[in-house]
């Protein structure tokens, strides 16, 4: 069976092998490894078989500790087992991992290397977790891209059976686990060929069974424990040879040759980086450029990190080496150096002792990419430049701006190595608007339907739904080797008009590049609605500017807000990646494939979307005059200094510009800061009806965003605060409020449009005949500019009203309330109340009712 | 208040400070740290106050994970918190430890460094656990003896408050935690003086409180996480200075000066060891000897392991150094070297780069003392000899005999550095016979009542109750610095006569030393009952030989088997450590102190024990003829090869002679091997009454040791197997056994005398009138030599009887059984059934009833 080219992400690539070569897969989901567990589960549910024809047993445990424990048991019965994990999840497995290694148990754990929670939690990638397992006695094999996430999974699986030492196979979380790449998929025959069945039989024969009883897990006293520990030496000594042999066999089968350590770069390099994981690809791409410029630079890629074969590492170095920089993707504060550095330092030291005539290179240590921090060619160049500088920095970091202990390397942000052989596109979407899904489709179409190599990477923030997503897509005839974000795009698409006020998305557009904007405005009116800065950028960059009213088109076709097919088509047509007809054919083929099962109606609607897009793309000729508005302040001038200096940068997407001195060292942040981030993401917002309201206060109680609040105020207070006609009030209920006014105000800019207030409201509007309707006192209406502006003005008035600290609503006095205890018959969904969005919740509570 | 000299163990020394300087102590017991948790709990129960006058809150959690989590919470509220742990318990704390460090939280965890379970579990000491925490960002401070376990606890407590970085204070499990030493106890005033209250106020002010809200535990995205991690640099940079400053202040207060790294040895040493923990004391004592012999040797003691101050470490080296050996007390298979080695290698490498004219010493790595494996002066000498050998071994181990990968150093077992300034005594007792307790008293008397320095260390094996204990006691006018076992004893006491057949306890007796034996034999008959080898050793060593019938004396006084006071007195009188009258006074004073609360009767009985001992010590003049018996084989000739080669050595107490090639590499052991270890420890054993027995089989079912078994056999079979008159049988019940005989046999040598069989037996003997008595069919009788021999002969006959695989007892046919289901009305204690002692249980079940 010939091999297929597939366009998938690192998790899928790894699971392809992990599932096919396992019998028991015990799982507990943790980001970014969860998709592997989910996919394995889905395959088993679909009754997909492993390469030996059986369906693996998939079990989800109560925690990663349970996963490690149950795998220990399954492995002891002679089963072939695996799991997937990351971060603190891996830490929970450590106690069992020592035992699994000590008992010479073959298994592979696939880890999407992720940060550990320290001053804050990070779901993103670095080597903090896998390094915390380096003392367990596991072998550790690293993949640096999607192809390798598959290949090394297989190499690990065979090597663990051959060596009896468990393998931790890892690749960079998000950067590799979630990057979509076109790659060659191994066949079942490949896997059967690679895995030696005799070794499986041997594993089975070691199983704990009453038929051949043996005893495991004993207590060993001081007389024998140490001797017992020294028995394993020969097994560890054998691993490098076993892994290299397996890699060689794999190369003979697939043509892809890996080595324990691979050298890349100038054969006469004087300056060499040692690195592991996806960062090696960025270094490789940068080396190509630097070598072309005459620089003598190179790199040693670490694949087998444990056991660390010191001699193999030194042998991988060119004899010309004068300076080494070891780059670690983790930080171990208090250590004399980060882990890979310490290993390389020992290797160099021992090599020099073994060969006194050897020139001992200078060895430097650096740290990069923690928590998926960007690691770009510009940073790589800075690392090489540091080596040849007069006073090279040691134990540096590259990325952060360390203005306190001055450990950071400075780098030239404008340095760019990306050439014209690759097409680069960036798409700015709103979380859950379909942009990411559409781009995944695009990547797959190009990967599948053309000879192009393809790459997709997707940046979300932790707010997920409702915040911005940025899709980074690259295509080209040559292999795309660029595990870093695009900063010079041929194409930028904005799927949400309001982003133009918030994010500097044209900064990355290259000269003569294309900008596609979704807007309800037409080509004549759109220009004047753009911010002046955007207008200037379009003109300066000599951009091609297209618009499309995807929302209107989607509604017309019947797809509603699902505009992904429209935007995808627009991209294909404008970019010219494929010829127009080819593109339409390819998209339609993909539609048939994706939606065929759902019936002709869905397929045809999507066909209509494609055809509609073709007819609705409008090119806007750039005027040469700047007519737009100034960009609004990210946070208002009255915000606290910390918010203006730190929080605002994060809101703008420029968090990487925050200096070390500005960040809280202990992870302690000021509270009540979300009030300064006005996201204005609601499509519909509540409108209060004073006539219908029974003044129970549930709307304010239930709002998870603290953006619907109530107060009672005197007429005088209202006047002083500047309440105008649009500021709605009602006569306050209750004797204690006699003569005062009651008001409910909504901050539309903070509202997420969740409708909880409207649903929780127990009041019902009466119709002309006095009969109750379905409408509550809070009706959802479109969040127009006019609504927003009115809301902002009235919110300001509301906040200026005095707090009435000693007053509170007496539930017994609430008109229409059926009980003196508002909770007893409350329609309020409790889970909503239990999920306050950070500090605004407290603020909301402090406002008197 | 002036300071007291106290004679306590490392756990007590540490708890003295940990308790006095804490407000919240959350605990979960794990060996060997449990005594600290227990003592803290006992102090709180006794309402003992901390130095600020409040009683710490002690809470036991559900696991070490819960301890770390709850401490995280308590610390966040501004409390001063601590805990105690070790081994896999520490591993469960790792996820929280990253967060505690990341959030700059001052706390001290006190760890009795212990092995991690790998190929087998070990409850004993090495640095495997603390090394697995070295990447968490905690500071790590190491104590090497009992005095330091107290001193460093205080230094850590102040340093964590000053630096805001949590401290892991550790000392060697068992070797330091359970060693009793005379030391100077800090006063409350000392602790108040050392701890800066301003820092406590600062910690309180950082507490999470709604009065000054701040937010902790946030998620950080790739834009800021890395920058957040770099904020901590300045805190770590400050720690070495803070710790040194604290040590200096401590020195001014107490006169004990510690440094981050301390150098010990010849000022012009060429060969230097780098080491951490109790092993440093063995190295120091050996250095004294080697330097006296003209060797240029020295040592760097590591105290502050994290942060590892590379410059301070290099500065501690004499400029004359040519060779370094870094000794690690842990093994990280697959690493290029063990952790301390990697750190020192980096320090030397960076120092050489900083100063190109520096002579770069050869750096070697070695491993010692895993799982409390002995680390003796002979081994230290081997380490120094290795450095100056023609081809020094690197990455060696010292202790095991690695005949597979040849990593071990050979050493001269007869090398001994102990001088005459110290009195050394060894006591062989049976677990739970009071020997250890008596020796702890002895140490305390000497420590308290004399100016002598004193040390006690106690070796148990994992069988605990019923197995051998060896107490190692040293006293002297000079400080005792010898954290290793005695191999040249002035005094050896044997508290159990049967040990003479099993253990070579006179091997360690020095020439002219004293041997004290508890025996019921008198001075005329005892000689002939000794094994010939023991006789020869006594003669060859020109030993003084004393006996005492402590058991008879104990019974006579009313103390029964509690012979500890008798043996203690005998030791004092024979050894001459104190003058006779002084000794008796001191012991009696101690008795008054210990038992005073229990009333005069108890005190007087113990006084009688002292006086009785004085009168019952008998010196035996050594005959010059060898009349004794040959030592019995440890295991019989028919035992499997593995048992003879490996298990037998462990039974003899010579497990350290087992070679690497002989040990199972994966911790898998053959089953059914306990049958070859005949311990013969039962005082009373069951005797079967065929007349009373109802043949229900419950005795065999309930025996946890598989040493009471039943069979049905024909008369022919009995004859063939060689059954004689002493082989009791009864006519078998049940139609299917008609004409056959039923027998119950007991292996007295395997019996533990637990009485479960006797209790479980439902049958009752009838008296002459035919009335039921209280006696069951299994009566406990003294386990005399005659009983043993008869049992052994009959057991052999029994085992030769054919298995009747298809026959089984039908409960319905059992005479006197009230139910067809023997479980329904069974008097068998179920927990006994549920606790089979390893494999003999299976054997027991396979025998047909």
UniProtKB/TrEMBL annotation, chains A, B:
It is an enzyme of class 1 (oxidoreductase). InterPro entries: 4Fe4S_Fe-S-bd, 4Fe4S_Fe_S_CS, PFOR_II, Pyruvate:ferred/Flavod_OxRd, Pyrv-flavodox_OxR_EKR_sf, Pyrv-flavodox_OxRtase_EKR, Pyrv/ketoisovalerate_OxRed_cat, Pyrv_Fd/Flavodoxin_OxRdtase_N. PANTHER family: PYRUVATE-FLAVODOXIN OXIDOREDUCTASE-RELATED. The keyword Plastid does not apply. GO terms for molecular function: 4 iron, 4 sulfur cluster binding; iron ion binding; pyruvate synthase activity. Belongs to the pyruvate:ferredoxin/flavodoxin oxidoreductase family. It holds the Pfam family Fer4_7. Gene3D superfamilies: 3.30.70.20, 3.40.50.920, 3.40.50.970, Pyruvate-ferredoxin oxidoreductase, PFOR, domain III (3.40.920.10), Pyruvate-flavodoxin oxidoreductase, EKR domain (4.10.780.10). It comes from Candidatus Electrothrix aarhusensis. Residues 684-713, 742-771 form the 4Fe-4S ferredoxin-type domain. GO terms for biological process: electron transport chain; response to oxidative stress. Keywords: 4Fe-4S, Electron transport, Iron, Iron-sulfur, Metal-binding, Oxidoreductase, Pyruvate, Transport. The keyword Iron applies. This is Pyruvate:ferredoxin (Flavodoxin) oxidoreductase, homodimeric. Its EC number is 1.2.7.-, 1.2.7.1.
């Amino acid at each position: 069976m010939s091999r297929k080219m597939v366009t998938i992400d690192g998790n899928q690539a790894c699971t392809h092998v992990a599932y096919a070569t396992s019998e028991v897969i015990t799982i507990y989901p943790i980001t970014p490894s969860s998709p592997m567990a989910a996919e394995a589960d889905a395959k088993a549910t679909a009754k997909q078989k492993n390469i030996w024809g059986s369906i693996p047993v998939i079990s989800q445990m109560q925690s990663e500790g349970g996963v490690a424990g149950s795998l220990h048991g399954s492995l002891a019965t002679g089963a072939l087992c695996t799991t997937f994990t990351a971060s603190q999840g891996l830490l929970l497995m450590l106690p069992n991992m020592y035992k699994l290694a000590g008992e010479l148990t073959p298994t592979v754990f696939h880890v999407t290397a992720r940060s550990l929670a320290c001053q804050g939690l990070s779901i993103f990638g670095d080597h903090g977790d896998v390094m915390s397992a380096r003392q367990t006695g596991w072998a550790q094999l690293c993949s640096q891209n999607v192809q390798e996430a598959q290949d090394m999974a297989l190499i690990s699986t065979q090597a663990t059976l051959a060596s009896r030492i468990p393998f931790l196979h890892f690749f960079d979380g998000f950067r590799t686990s979630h990057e979509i790449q076109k790659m060659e998929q191994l066949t079942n025959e490949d896997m059967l060929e690679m895995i030696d069945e005799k070794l499986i039989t041997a594993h089975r024969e070691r199983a704990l069974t009453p038929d051949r009883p043996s005893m495991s897990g004993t207590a060993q006293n001081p007389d024998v424990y140490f001797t017992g520990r020294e028995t394993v030496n020969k097994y560890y000594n054998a691993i490098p040879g076993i892994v290299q042999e397996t890699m060689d066999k794999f190369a003979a089968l697939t043509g892809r040759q890996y080595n324990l350590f691979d050298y890349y770069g100038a054969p006469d390099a004087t300056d060499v980086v040692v690195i592991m994981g996806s960062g090696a690809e960025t270094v490789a791409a940068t080396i190509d450029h630097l070598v072309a410029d005459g620089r003598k630079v190179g790199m040693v890629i670490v694949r087998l990190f444990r056991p660390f074969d010191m001699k193999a590492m030194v042998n991988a170095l060119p004899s010309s080496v004068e300076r080494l920089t070891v780059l670690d993707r983790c930080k171990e504060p208090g250590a004399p150096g980060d882990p890979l550095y310490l290993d390389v330092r020992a290797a160099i030291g021992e090599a020099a002792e073994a060969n006194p005539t050897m020139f001992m290179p200078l060895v430097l240590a650096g740290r990069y990419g923690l928590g998926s921090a960007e690691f770009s060619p510009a940073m790589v160049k800075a690392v090489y430049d540091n080596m040849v500088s007069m006073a090279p920095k040691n134990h540096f970091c590259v990325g952060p701006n360390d203005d306190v202990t001055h450990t950071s390397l400075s780098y030239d942000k404008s340095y760019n190595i990306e050439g014209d052989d690759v097409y680069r596109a960036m798409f700015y979407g709103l979380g859950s608007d379909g942009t990411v899904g559409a781009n995944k489709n695009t990547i797959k179409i190009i990967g599948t339907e053309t000879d192009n190599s393809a790459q997709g990477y997707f940046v979300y923030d932790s707010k997920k739904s409702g915040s911005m997503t940025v899709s980074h897509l690259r295509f080209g005839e040559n292999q795309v080797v660029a595990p870093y974000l695009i900063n010079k795009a041929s194409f930028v698409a904005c799927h949400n008009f309001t982003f133009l006020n918030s994010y500097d998305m044209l900064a990355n557009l290259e000269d003569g590049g294309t900008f596609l904007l979704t807007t309800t405005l037409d080509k004549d009116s759109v220009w004047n609605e753009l911010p002046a800065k955007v207008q200037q950028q379009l003109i300066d960059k000599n951009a091609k500017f297209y618009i499309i009213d995807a929302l209107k088109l989607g509604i017309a076709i019947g797809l509603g807000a699902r505009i992904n097919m429209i935007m995808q088509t627009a991209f294909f047509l404008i970019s010219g990646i494929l010829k127009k007809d080819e593109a339409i054919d390819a998209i339609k083929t993909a539609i048939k494939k994706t939606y065929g099962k759902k019936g002709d109606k869905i397929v045809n609607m999507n066909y209509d979307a494609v055809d509609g897009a073709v007819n609705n793309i409008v090119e806007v000729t750039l005027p040469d005059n700047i007519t737009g508005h100034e960009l609004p302040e990210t946070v208002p001038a009255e915000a606290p200094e910390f918010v203006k200096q730190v929080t605002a940068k994060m809101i703008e997407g420029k968090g990487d510009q925050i200096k070390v001195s500005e960040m809280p060292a202990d992870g302690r942040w000021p509270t009540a800061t979300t009030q300064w981030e006005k996201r204005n993401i609601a499509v519909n917002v509540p409108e209060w009806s004073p006539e219908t309201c029974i003044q129970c206060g549930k709307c304010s109680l239930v709002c998870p965003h603290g953006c619907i609040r109530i107060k009672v105020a005197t007429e005088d207070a209202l006047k002083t605060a500047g309440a105008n006609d649009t500021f709605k009030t009602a006569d306050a209920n209750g004797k204690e409020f006699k003569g005062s006014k009651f008001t409910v105000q909504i901050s539309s800019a903070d509202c997420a449009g969740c409708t909880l207030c409207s649903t929780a409201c127990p009041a019902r509007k009466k119709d002309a005949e006095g009969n109750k309707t379905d409408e509550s006192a809070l009706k959802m209406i479109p969040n127009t500019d006019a609504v927003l502006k009115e809301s902002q003005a009235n919110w300001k008035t509301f906040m200026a009203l005095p707090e009435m600290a000693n007053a509170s609503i007496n539930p017994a006095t609430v008109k229409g309330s059926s009980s003196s205890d508002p909770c007893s018959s409350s329609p309020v969904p409790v889970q909503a109340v239990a999920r306050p969005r950070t500090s605004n919740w407290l603020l909301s509570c402090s406002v008197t009712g």
